[in-house]
Amino acid sequence: MFKNENDFKKLINRLNIDDKPNPAHHQNLRQKMLSTFNKIHKPRKTSWLTIRRIIMKSPITKLAAAAAIIVVGALAITFLQQSATPAYAIEQTIEANHSVRFLHIKNFKAEHDEPKEFWLEFDQYGQFVNARIHTPEWEPHDGPKVTVWAENIAQVWLKKKNVLAIIKDKSVAQHMLNFAKECDPKLAVQRLYEQQAQGEVDIKIDYPLDKAEPIVVTATYLPESSKPDKREVLLVDQATKLVVAMEYHQLKDGQYQYLGVSEYYDYNQPIAPEMFALSDVPADALILDQVTQKIGLAQGNLSDNEIATEVARQFFQALIDKDYHKAGRLYQGIPAEKMQEVYGQIRFIRIVSIGEPTPETTFGKLRVPCTIEIQKNGEMSHWQPHPEGLLVGQIENQPGWWGIFGGI
Amino acid sequence: MVGAMAKTNNRTDTDDLVLRARSDADALGQLYELYYERIFRFCVYRLFSKEAAEDVTSMVFLAVAGKIRNFPGRTEEDFRNWLYTIAAKQANAYLRKTSRRSRLLAKAANSMTAATANCTNHSAELDWPTLYRAIMKLPPKHQTIVTLRFFENLSFEEIAKIMNAKPKTVYVMLHRLLKKLRNYLQTDVDGEK
């Protein structure tokens, strides 16, 4: 008989069990597993049809009734807090689930494979405290960029331009909150509930037979609503009652066409603080700091055309005076050293003319035609910074202040 | 500020696979290749039947496919512990059916007799069917500890994570269950005499 753990171990080691797996089982199970995974976890267009096929369609149910199902989870904490006397069971559930504090979202567009990704941290009141956003290559204007946001300050690293912009503004916070309303599943449920109450949307709930399949909440905006051609589809995990994905559709040629999907991952899995810092910005990146300095020129009583002209005039005068600090301040806060590095080899002699500004449609700013006399490499010339004029406009995060945008 | 916050990154490729596997079938396939044999072996030693082990291994990986999206772990270790936890629960659930349990005991007795006959160096008083019968008398939790400790060679810390217990608790449980096993075996052997 064995005396101790080691003896027992020796005894076990003498066992000669055939533990070699059958290759056929190995292969079959792999296929089965991946097939199950694809069925459950691909709520995008292709697999959505599969999901729709396998669910049992229940009679149309209004969200008011369905809210009981969804609300029981951690989704609608804000909604539940509005209830004066929440049921005891629900209170318990809230206690058990708390609210969404951490979330990882992948936002796919129908026409692109690479998603936009968000890592979000909320406080106990459901307000944003931290965000990190990865914007992919396909995003127009800036190309790929990484944004981290906290305490109303956004740091935006434009990878291709190797520029780090640091911006402080309430509109950024508002933008983030609007984004939260769109993307946070907790708020999404609340929003749909409110819209249903206002007669904006029609809600259908599909309950699948299989417990592993998600509950499907389809919100179709009514013809008289503010978004008459839109449809949103929420996939709700039956076990956790958490929204796992939200699809967007648009009515076109009489049919709802798939636009994209937001997929939700890692509910309340704490996100490392490092994720909310920019750690990979190259040391030689150009820093546009719009937090520690006010940039641009105050509009005061000037008209838009007058302030645009004045910004252009002061900018070129600063270059003529070699006041790179002032020129940089008018031009997105580019550091004086960088301005000198770029423009120091050119001698700005005089402003020949500044024309009447004209509206620019893409960015909603003004084009100010300018002609400057310069000397470069010993040669004198008349220089026009842009064929259509200098791009001047109001700075988004500083209402009433105007500056220069785009390339010169 | 720029470049000043470089973070240390000790994550392995398999850790990254674990994160990707929540939304990426290829990554899940790779994890399957890494862990299929291990889980199958665990099931064989837990159930002493290849047929039953195939059933339970299937249940484990199908459960993984269904749940991985909400799997909270971030590392290979988290994933491995999660797999073992599922496997232990599925094996226990499998054994809970009395008819299956009896069938397995009978099978174990038959299959182990041949193996025992080949073992010339160890005590003739103890054969493997006897030991397996003794193990099956233990509560399911203790049976899992035996398999993880003696067949999978896991440390107390690793077992504790899988079983959601403290290492010290596992240590104490192991020593108690060994004592029980010794008593069962002694009774069995004495009975045969």
What is the radius of gyration of chain B computed over CA atoms, rounded to a whole number of angstroms? Answer: 20 Å
- Fraction of helical residues of chain A: 25-40%
Biggest sheet character of chain B: none
Q: Structural class of the secondary elements of chain B?
A: mainly alpha
CATH topology grouping of the largest domain in chain A: outer membrane lipoprotein receptor (LolB), chain A
Count of β-strands of chain A:
20
Strand line-up across the major sheet of chain A: 7-8-9-10-11-1-2-3-4-5-6-12
Largest sheet of chain A: 12 strands, mixed
Task: Tell me which CATH architecture of the largest domain in chain A applies here.
Answer: Clam
- Summed up, the domain count of chain A is 2
- What's the CATH class of the largest domain in chain A, please? Mainly Beta
Report the oligomer: heterodimer
Largest interface in this structure? A-B, 50 and 56 residues
What does this protein look like?
The complex is a heterodimer of chains A (408) and B (193). With 408 residues, chain A is α+β, with helices and mostly antiparallel strands. Chain A has two domains: 203 residues, outer membrane lipoprotein receptor (LolB), chain A; 110 residues, Nuclear Transport Factor 2, Chain: A. Chain A is 30% helix and 31% strand. Chain A is built from eleven helices and 20 strands. Chain A has a twelve-stranded mixed sheet with strand order 7-8-9-10-11-1-2-3-4-5-6-12, covered by helices on one side. In chain A, α7 crosses α8 and α9 packs antiparallel against α10. Chain A starts with a helix and ends with a strand. The relative contact order of chain A is 0.10. The longest helix of chain B has 26 residues. In chain B, α2 runs antiparallel to α3. Chain B has nine helices and no strands. Chain B has one domain. The N terminus of chain B is likely disordered. Chain B is 76% helix and 0% strand. Chain B has 193 residues and is an all-alpha fold.
